[in-house]
Amino acid sequence: MTNSEQPAGPGGPLLELDGVKQHYPLPRRMPFAPRKSVRALDGVDLTVRGGETLGVIGESGCGKSTLARVIAGLDRPTEGRVLFRGQDINALRGAERKEMRRNIQLIFQDPFSALNPRKKVGELVAEPFRIHRNLLPSGRRRAKVAELMELVGLKPEHMNRYPHQFSGGQQQRIGIARGIALNPDLLVCDEAVSALDVSVRAQIVNLLQDLQRELDLSFVFIAHDLQIVRHMADRVATMYLGRVVELGDYSDVYDTTGHPYTKALLAAAPELRGGPADRERIILTGDPPSPIDPPSGCRFRSRCWMAEDICREREPELVELAGAHVSRCHFADTLIDRPSL
Amino acid sequence: AACSDGGGQAGSDGGDGTLTFETTEPKSLLPQKDPGSQIAMATCANLMEMNTKTQKYEPLAAKSVKSTDAKSWTIKLRHGWTFQDGSPVTASSFVQAWNKAAYGPNAWQGNGMFASFKGYDAMNPPDGSKPKVKKLSGVQTSGKYTITVTLSEPNSDFPKILSTNPTCPLPKVAFTDPKSYESKPISNGPYKVVSWDHNQSVTMKKWDGFKGSAGFSGGATTLVAKIYTSPDAAYTDMTANNLDMMRNIQPAMVAKAKSQLGSDALYKVKTESKQNTLQFPEYLKKLRSPELRHAIAMSIDRKSIAKSLLQGNSAPSDSLVPPSLGSYRKGSCEACTYNPTKAKKLLKKSGGFSGTLNIDYNSDSDKELVQAVSKQIKSNLGIKVQLKPMLGTELQSKRNNGKLDGALFGLWGWSFKSPDQYLSQYETNGDGNAATGYSNPAVDKLIRSARGELNVKKRNAKFAKAEHLILQDMPAIPLFVPKDYGLHSKCAVMNDVQGDLQFYRAGYGC
Amino acid sequence: MTAEPIPQPAEPILSVRDLVVEFETPAGRVRAVNDVELDVRQGQALGILGESGSGKSVTASAIMGLLDTPPAHVTSGEILLDEMNLVGLPEKQRQRVIGSEISMVFQDALTALNPVHTVGNQIGELYRVHRGMSRRASRLAAIEMMDRVRIPGAAGRVHDYPHQFSGGMRQRIVIAMALALDPKVLIADEPTTALDVTVQAQILELLKEQQDERDMGLVLITHDISVVSEVTDETAVMYAGRIVERGPTRDLLTNPAHPYSRGLASSVSSEDLKGKRLPAIPGQPPELNRLPAGCSFAPRCEFAQPECRISAPPLEEVAPGRRSACFFSDRILRQ
Amino acid sequence: MSVDRQVLSGPVEDIADEPNTWHRIRSLAQRPRFVISGALVLIMIVMAAFPQLFAGFGSDPNAGCNILNTNKPPSASHWFGYDPQGCDYYTNVIYGARASIVVGIVVTSASFVVSAILGALAGFYGRWVDALISRVCDIAFGLPFILAAIVVLQLFDHRTIWTVSFALALFHWPGGVRYMRSSVMTVRNREYVQASRVLGGSDFRLIFSHLVPNSLTPLLVLQTLGVGGVIAAEAGLTFIGVGLSPPSVSWGLQLAAARQYVSESPHLLIFPAIFLSVTVLAFVLFGEALRDEFDPKGAS
Amino acid sequence: MPVVIGATFIIYALTFAMPGDPVAALTGSRPLPASTVTQIREAYHLNDPFLAQYGHYMWNLVHGNLGIDFFGRPVSGLIAERWPNTFKLALTAWVLKLIIGLAIGVYGGLKHNRAGDHFALIFTVVFLGVPGFVIALGAQTLFGVQLNWVDPAGIGAGWPMAYILPALVMAFEASASLARLTRTSLVDVLRTDYMRTARAKGLSPSRSIWKHALRNAMIPVVTYLGLSLAGMLGGAVIIEAIFNIPGIGQLMVQAIHNKEGTVVVGIATLLVIVYLVFNLLVDLTYGLIDPRVRV
Ligand SMILES: Nc1ncnc2c1ncn2[C@@H]1O[C@H](COP(=O)(O)OP(=O)(O)OP(=O)(O)O)[C@@H](O)[C@H]1O
Ligand SMILES: Nc1ncnc2c1ncn2[C@@H]1O[C@H](COP(=O)(O)OP(=O)(O)OP(=O)(O)O)[C@@H](O)[C@H]1O
Ligand SMILES: [Mg+2]
Ligand SMILES: [Mg+2]
Ligand code: NI
């Protein structure tokens, strides 16, 4: 272990998001028109504990990738703080910031586009050490790269190849090798396996789990594929229009769902149904509303089959259902009471 | 065949007596403002003019121009001459025009032609201050038809000066309404301006009221000056039968024309009036040694260049004046005979030459010729030669301000046929002296006395003597005397007056 | 919905026989589709399952005649659409069939639509070209078609451009285009891969519904087993350019006869596997220009025997209605 | 760090041969465009560097001239004939390559570098950096080139190929900036750039290690297309009298001089024109070939 | 606006920095009399420091006064006389170039990497490689002199006859880049999914190219086209000289030769403005053909 820091105690908060908002300003349509912005994240509170895997689900455009970017420090949130081991990562400067970078790594959805096509794999895997020069004497770099490549199941001989000469699964392994090179504490996987073939996906999922065990990693695992999230995650957060609408242990969220949106998601996923008759289908109508002008009150009300007047008037708070299971719905309790709707 | 089918509206069509000639867009149609303008020449009848038939200067608008001492001149005008608008041509038509042109602040281009007039300095103070007088003190009228001119120094060439554009008369309207006058001038010459289509053409018609004899005019009933920005374009138009006359064509074009248009189309100017020289600014110490200059003069194989590169269209020059001038004596420049061995010896004698000999020249001028000359110097003397082409503005300001950094390759031509026009370059502050700044009291004295000499023979002898003196210092190396060519269609019958090819004098031969 | 055993209609509307497609590449000719045979029957959905690069799209493009020649060459085989062989059909005749008798939905709806034309124009074009309708009539038809694929406010949106629609809407428009002329067969090449779960469900629903309504044949290409199991009646599994197994979807997925299908079916995680390693097929799919001799799956196959590396097993009937290309299908079926 | 091999979920198949030298050569041979244009460019460059290798009539184009041979047409002993100075034209044309190609390459590469850097900065930082650079480019675009060249060239006492290159380069870059800027803007948001940033890479690293190499291709093609234009611009300067001057030799000078002899001595025009055209062709083809070559995917 | 100011400033500075003395150039062999020089220098503010001169110029400029040249002719008049000629020439050339370049580019794009493509490439590169004046002179001799289809020089025949030949020459010279650009763009477009869709709709090749490919392929070309017209307006010096077209380019070169600051800056300012206007037009056109950038 090259990690010099005190490993976080098991279960202690490694990462905390405190009212994080991320608004992307839009260009004005007309001069002097009021400036609008995309509310990609609109008040997100989350914690990730050391060694755990937090799954994040939600449909396209709900802000999952933005969340990943904010956690990784790529975007500075418009409001709120991202605390890593209690320190606001955006308040850090210089060496401290670099150190933070080292500890939080991000793995991208498209393995190929996350690799510079003009660099050899050896260079790509060595890049972390080029950036953090003090971590490793340059003489040992090559050996370390070989070690990493072996660790993720690639042949060190392939260092001199270019990314396109690898298959998608192998490319994702390269990405993972880069991600774990600096021995981070937290790995954010933004749909890291979505682009992979079924058979290869299983390989990568296994690899990630193995690495987590070996290296004592925490994961933020973002995916469309609800089945994989269930497989990987300890806890699951459902996002809708820039907000967390449900959060809890995976079993709570999947089995005693406390939010109609999560419910609709689960129902839409054929793989969870096992067979056509197993679960009722809820086909959500319409598209998600624009994150520029989210609906008043409950954001999901425009598509919710349970919506009532109250939903329009008041945005529900995150209510505790059972233990750490929280949901942002006025009717959460009724939902839990009727697991199959 | 220009007689067959003309191209555009301005083309030369058989029978109607129209001739077209090449020109550039005039800056002005006022003769005083554009002294070289062929259009001004065609429209103005000066006091004196060259007669095509006799090839002599003869009074035209003047009845007589006389002097006994070459210093004060009496000019008698012909009676009954009018401008093209019918207003009479009188002494004041001339005097007013001269005063205006000679007044420095007006900045008219023809200003310099009045430098020898008494009172010129007062109108152009050498210190640059604003002149207090607006009239030439040396010019007086007595009565309607007599002008007396006093020069600051005797000059027997004075009648010739009276044949140049700047001395043309101007009618009253030119002063009362100068703006509209400039776009459609009214003069007293054989042709009158009909229209000026900017950047395209100036059309002139023969003026019936012209009172001069045939020797002073041409055969075309309509003259069209077609405006070109480059001679090449004009040449092309010539080959396409859209143009009747060109002049001052470059040597390379001569060869081209011979094969494309046939030698019939070439008109060889009978009198050579130009000369190429290599001039040495006196302020460059490096180039001051006469031996060095002689060595350079000797190192140039003029004959071969003339024969091969210039294709016989130039003759080697062996004098500071072209052979057509009376003061010319064959071989007066002894160092102008090619002799590389002697040249080398002379160079050694002069103490050798280290560094680079720069040759400054106008980038518009004949590059190949300069290059050939420089090559000769380089290979026969073994010295470094660097060519420095420059834009006109740059070269002229360098020359006039004494800022040249090497020898100057130049082409000189006369405004009227006189040795003075050439040798004044070597007179202190003389015309064209700015290039070399050469100054030699003995030479100055000789030239001044030659100028005042009314006897032609004596005059020429004095000029020749001055030339001899100058050549000992060799401020300029004579190089070539180019033969001047014009191009013409079948309809245009060209002729030149003592080296000057004037389009309006062309006969119409269809 | 596919629980009942399917009564076999006699004649397939589309049937592909011994299709071979080769590509010219700098490294030589590669065989992207090798001896593929498929049958699509009226009112039935055929799923084609396989990993990336296994030749699914090339097969579909070959059927539609969309392959660029060169580099692609259909070297042998026939594609029978209602007895008419599409291979070698004169260009003019083919144009008449393509888009009307048989049509296709592509994976990426964002790029499948021309960004500079309105959607109404793009749908209407079909009516104008194939049916010779007037501009006006074709627009009305387009609106109707958009209605059919449940685009809200279709009449008001015909003049919108593709970028003004969301991903799911665009996919609907693509489907509308494919269905516009009432084709006998619709090929959908990964129609939902780019979409997220909720929209995916909507689109699959739509496809299924339209198929039933029109009683057409549907070919659904995907690498998502759950989609296949959800929608299709029959399934073909492709591997390295070959069909390695065919059969009724239910049977094939619950009891695969080919080791590859087996690997695929079992690598899907389920609740029971939580916290455990997923069963994965080891290794990587082979590259087409260096296919192993014999069975191309042999290097990754747990059942492989020396004989597998010598000759490729043919696609043979292993059970009623089931065909598999493995020497050990029986053994696997029995396990 | 010690992790069991069991982490591997299975053996990894060998996917491709190492791209060895032989493989490269063979794949080169399959791209005749690259080989031919590359060879031509190489010949031109060698010609520019060592003209004496090609010139059969001495190592100085100005030596061994005889003014009496002015413009003589090609003959068996002098393939290209003579120039107006009576010098062997073949030697001259060969030596002319130096100036023309040096000018072409120097100007192109200089403006390549400048526009790459400025374009990258503008594209990467956006906002005021972008606005500033774009405005500067607009201004530079609007400047009359001839005027600018004249002013710049008069700063130097002697006009050599270097000063001419300098003057041309000074006004050649703005076009590239636009291209570079827009291609950087597309690359900027690629994930591998983000990936490097996540690792803590500095802006400098992001720009020069990731952005620039991946967005150069359009610029490269543009610039190689422009080589001919640059060579012609040198000739154009000579034409208006502010370019190179003899005894320098360049195709531009030769073409400018040949103009007045076109009908009499066409060989003066033909030979440098052919050389120039072939060079331009070679560079254009080479640029396209390079693009394929630099595209890492192009090889497979 | 900042661009106009910046550009005029730099141009003014450049003219100021140009070698030579404009007053010296006014005369022939003999230096002008000192008083004349003084007079001219005063009249044209040549003795003022640079910034004062520039300020003076700009002051006049905003009052719509472009100043006068050394012969007293108003610059605005000089430009007005010649601008229509240049404009006619450039526009004709541009349209021809559009036709030629697009035709060759589309042809090359359709025959991508086949013989036709190579042929198109070589064709364009020959025009790129052969110096412009060679082509111009050749065309002039052939069509103007030998065949006598058009006047070889001058604009006496008016538009279009007088402009067609020089415009064609310019068009051919400039069509190379356009052809290359079009070709590349078209090749890219032909590879897109929506072209595949078009074929899957059973459209004929010609229909899918005309209706679907071309407009998309034009999107990247538009920027180039707009700027190239701006460029052509300023850059036809040699063509204007050869075909004797009195245009802006010629005027500019002459003015530079004579160091006539007012004329140079006047023309240059005009060209900068033209350039900006075309930039704007390009943006508008862009919106027209690409609905995605429409607001
Ligand atoms: N840089 C940006 N500028 C403006 N809007 C942005 C930006 N990045 C993201 N958005 C917008 O923010 C919202 C959330 O985007 P995000 O990428 O986080 O969604 P996502 O949940 O990751 O979706 P997907 O599942 O498709 O990846 C979207 O509406 C997106 O358009
Ligand atoms: N133009 C081409 N040139 C060479 N090879 C090609 C070409 N097009 C496709 N191939 C090859 O054909 C094989 C099959 O490709 P195909 O697109 O059918 O795969 P697929 O099963 O649809 O994969 P995916 O799930 O990724 O869409 C691939 O190995 C691919 O490399
Ligand atoms: Mg995302
Ligand atoms: Mg596919
Ligand atoms: Ni005639």
From TrEMBL, chain A:
Keywords: ATP-binding, Nucleotide-binding, Transport
Annotated GO MF terms: ATP binding; ATP hydrolysis activity
Record-annotated ABC transporter domain positions: 15-266
Matches recorded under NCBIfam families: oligo_HPY, PRK11308.1
Record's keyword annotation contains Nucleotide-binding: yes
Gene3D superfamilies documented for this protein: P-loop containing nucleotide triphosphate hydrolases
Biological process terms in GO annotation: peptide transport; transmembrane transport
Pfam family for this entry, one: oligo_HPY
Record PANTHER family: D,D-DIPEPTIDE TRANSPORT ATP-BINDING PROTEIN DDPF-RELATED (PTHR43776:SF7), TRANSPORT ATP-BINDING PROTEIN (PTHR43776)
Similarity comment: family membership: Belongs to the ABC transporter superfamily.
Name of this chain's protein: Oligopeptide transport system ATP-binding protein
From TrEMBL, chain C:
GO cellular component: plasma membrane
InterPro entries linked to this entry: AAA+_ATPase, ABC_Ni/Peptide_Import, ABC_transporter-like_ATP-bd, ABC_transporter-like_CS, Oligopep_ABC_C, P-loop_NTPase
Highest rank taxon of the organism: Bacteria
Region (Disordered): 255-285
Keywords tagged on the record: ATP-binding, Cell membrane, Membrane, Nucleotide-binding, Transport
GO BP annotations listed: peptide transport
Membrane topology per record: Peripheral membrane protein
Any GO MF annotation of the entry: ATP binding
CDD domains in UniProt: ABC_NikE_OppD_transporters
UniProt-annotated location(s): Cell membrane
Keyword NAD part of the UniProt annotation: no
Pfam families: ABC_tran, oligo_HPY
Entry annotated with the keyword Nucleotide-binding: yes
Main subcellular location of this protein, as a coarse class: membrane
Annotated ranges, domain ABC transporter: 14-265
Protein's recorded name: Oligopeptide/dipeptide ABC transporter ATP-binding protein
TrEMBL record, chain D:
Keyword tRNA processing set for record: no
Residue intervals of the ABC transmembrane type-1 domain: 101-287
A Pfam family this chain is assigned to: BPD_transp_1
InterPro entries tied to this protein: BP-dependent_transpt_permease, MetI-like, MetI-like_sf
Gene Ontology terms describing biological process: transmembrane transport
Gene3D superfamilies: MetI-like
Name of the protein in question: Oligopeptide transport system permease protein
UniProtKB/TrEMBL annotation, chain E:
UniProt keyword annotation of Methyltransferase present: no
Subcellular location: Cell membrane
Protein keywords: Cell membrane, Membrane, Transmembrane, Transmembrane helix, Transport
Main localization of the protein described in the UniProt heading: membrane
TM ranges: 89-107, 119-143, 163-181, 221-243, 263-289
GO term, biological process aspect, one: transmembrane transport
Pfam families from the UniProt entry: BPD_transp_1, BPD_transp_1_N
Cross-referenced Gene3D superfamilies: MetI-like
One GO term describing the cellular component: plasma membrane
Annotated membrane topology: Multi-pass membrane protein
Annotated ranges, domain ABC transmembrane type-1: 83-282
Family classification: Belongs to the binding-protein-dependent transport system permease family.
Name this polypeptide is given: ABC-type dipeptide/oligopeptide/nickel transport system permease component
